[in-house]
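Can't paste images in this forum, so I'm doing it all in text. The chain is below; anyone willing to post the predicted structure tokens underneath?
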Amino acid sequence: MERGRVDLAARAAPVVSDKSNIQQIGELLYTRYIFLFEAAGIVLLVAMIGAIVLTHRKRGGVRTQNISKQNQRRPQDATRLVDPGVGQGDGIVISVGHYLAVSAVLFTLGVLGIFITARILSSS
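Text version of the structure:
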């Protein structure tokens, strides 16, 4: 055996040909790994209950939905037409070209990182 390699054949469970894979996995989970299986179930149950509790808690300062107010809304009240002059806008305006340039640079850096990582992994 080479240094750093693991002999998986020595660690594998014996193969029983008269049972399907599902039956073998079930027997293994419910016999050899029952405590780990039960612990994982308890962790998932606690996480599910925690998510439900956090979702249903009362929070202050949250605007609730008022359906009747939404149904009574008129289109004239919902929009406002504004025509600001040059340099009179509310904030910084970034053109689509800038977004495309930044996304192209980020994409190129990501692809370059993948190639560098693959080259480093293949050389070692």
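Residues 16-57 form one domain. The radius of gyration is 30 Å.
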